[in-house]
Amino acid sequence: MKFYSTSNYLIALLAVFVISCDEGDQSLKKASFGKKENPKIYKLKFGHDMPGESPQHLAAKKFKEIVERKSQGRLIIEVFPNQVLGSDQEMIQQAIDGNLDIILPPTAKLSGIVPSSLYLDLPFFFEDRKELYEMLDGKPGEILKDKFLSKGLVGVSFWESGFKHFTANKEIHSPKDFKNLKVRVMKNRLLVDQYKFLGGKSFFIDFLKIYDALKDGVINAQENSLVSIKNLKLYERQSHIILSEHGYIGYLLSFSKRTYDKLPQDLQEILYSAGQEITAFEREETQKKENQYLKKLEETSVKIIKLTNEEKKAFKIVLHPLLEKYRRTIGYKLLEITDQIKSEKNPFSADEILIGLDADLFAGSSSSGYSIKRGVQIAVNEINSNGGVLGKKLRLVSKDHSGISARGIMNIEYFSKLENLVAVVGGIHSPVALSELETLHQKKIIYLDPWAAATNIVENGHNPNYVFRVSVRDEYAGPFLVNQTLKKYNKIALLLENTGWGRSNHKSMSSVFKEKGIQPVTVQWFNWREPNLYKQLFAIKSSGADAIILVSNAPEGKTLIKNMIENNISIPIFSHWGITGGNFGKDVKDELKLIDLKVLQTFSFLKPKNEKTKLFIKKYFDYLELDKKGNIDAPVGTAHAYDIVHLLALAIHSAKSLDRVEIRKALENISSYNGLVKNYHRPFSEKSHEALDLNDFFLAKYDDEGRIIPVLN
């Protein structure tokens, strides 16, 4: 062991001390170097269209204060009101381009980049502010905001100018009072249609030019919030203000995504949270201003009229077709979630008979779900207008399963707990229906199938059987497609979805091939949501096939058609009707001009089979303001659902009971019913729960506009 002398020890100790101090000094230097003594300051511009005394501008200034305080001066915001930086459309584009950092555009003027924004323009759709805030601050609002990200905007929160009211130089109490009125509207197609339905004429006029347009007689009516009516002094040029609360002027506080993405995360969080925090203040200020301005307006010479609930109802009936016309544009999911929230607020009554709808209402086949829903609802409305059944009104309760079996089973469990539920109407997906069979029979729930075609949905082995179908059965569909194809082609390829539905069709087709002593040249399978079908398509081409029999839903059908065009492959296709359940015809209408595709159908709005069908078609078109050329999504879904609900109503009436066991028996004993698809004679029996057969099938095709039209034999 080595020992140090005292002097050596002191020298060593001193060296350690010096080294330690030096290391400490270096760490201090490092800490000092890492400290941001002069943090970067971000200066942001905030532009909007409202005057300096408006609630929007007051909230914008308060937003500025919160952001600057919480960021300790690292964020500086300059607010520009009154369209100083340009019109709303110009500011929106500036924000998308990254040349303006924060904007507050009316949602009506955002519909050009995100059509779902038309949601807030639906007339007489929201009952009151409480319901509206529940939507905007909840799931519907999140869905809407998410759509702006891909367009270059970060949607933060919904501010408002309040509910819209009519102003005119005459009294308005009903839709007919709008006849020949010249009405100012924002540049928004739904609002143009709104006044078309009411009989008025629409004019696009900038917000700040409304007063002069009224003064010069270019227009004689308009719609706006009380805040805007007062601030723009529109009451000086209009004799009447009609308190209608028919629509809503929402504003979406938005950040330029380009600006937002450049900010440090902590500043992003400060901006976003401040935008949400100030929303309640802005809404409160708007309501205060409304109350103040209403009192001031009452002191002027303008006459103020408040629509009664009955008058609002009359407007709602006339304008309801807008909801159907714009359902796809606004978004099936957004509107369905809204409907479900509204339904939950309106509890079920003991005086109501409930019918469940279990279908894809959100995903790739959602247009089929709404086709079915529309058919059910029209039938329900007809039955209720004639007094209902057993003295009770029918009510539809819908649930989405998005083609997911587990979600479908959860829906059936939910329906089973509802008192007075008599039946559940299903959707397009056979795999979902098959997965639900055990639960349906365990709970003794009548399942009405207006679309799903797998044979074993009905031939399910359950006794008693609670499933009834007004739709195609694969045991019949397969032979129909094979026989139709063999009329012209003999080298047939099968391209089938790898599900219970696809296998059901394969089984029925194989029987026909065997009977005829021939075989398909190839059988190709695919899974849901496959990104491409190149492998299957090239195998079909290599097989020498001169025709394809397709069993597919719309998403995969669309993929197939696009893949064929990409690879210059043109083989005639005979398809099961699954492709008609989505936006297939519209999504690939140009490609279909180059592909010979025919599809199985049972009903056409262009080929009515009886007088009842003709009357229904006229009513349907008139109600939805559609043209007369077949511009309807998935027509078979509507017709089948309509017929099957009327058959259910007959069974309930016959059973004189809401007991599902008795109603099931009554369904098996209906003698006749003149429906849309056909005149039914004993549609169901103890031995058969299938209402349609081979005699009800025909081939159709898509025209140049993506509409389904019958093929003339």
At a glance:
With 713 residues, the protein is α/β, with parallel strands linked by helices.
Task: Walk me through the structure.
The chain is of the alpha/beta class and 713 residues long. The protein folds into 3 domains: 274 residues, 3-Layer(aba) Sandwich (D-Maltodextrin-Binding Protein, domain 2), CATH 3.40.190; 151 residues, Rossmann fold (3-Layer(aba) Sandwich), CATH 3.40.50; 128 residues, Response regulator (Rossmann fold). Strands 1, 2, 3, 4, 5, 6, 7, 8 and 9 form a 9-stranded mixed beta sheet that branches. Strand 13, helix 19 and strand 14 form a beta-alpha-beta unit. The N terminus is likely disordered.
CATH architecture verdict of the largest domain: 3-Layer(aba) Sandwich
What would CATH call the homologous superfamily of the largest domain? Answer: Bacterial extracellular solute-binding protein, family 7
Principal-axes geometry comes out as: globular
Tell how many strands the DSSP assignment holds.
Answer: 23
Distance between the termini: 112 Å
- Poorly predicted runs of 5 or more residues: 1-35
What fraction strand? 15-25%
Biggest beta sheet summary: 9 strands, mixed
| Rg on CA atoms, Å | 32 Å
Summed up, the domain count is 3
Number of helices: 27
What do we call the CATH topology of the largest domain?
D-Maltodextrin-Binding Protein, domain 2
* Average pLDDT figure: 91
- Indicate the structural class: alpha/beta
Q: What percentage of residues falls in helices of 4 or more residues?
A: 40-55%
Main CATH class of the largest domain: Alpha Beta
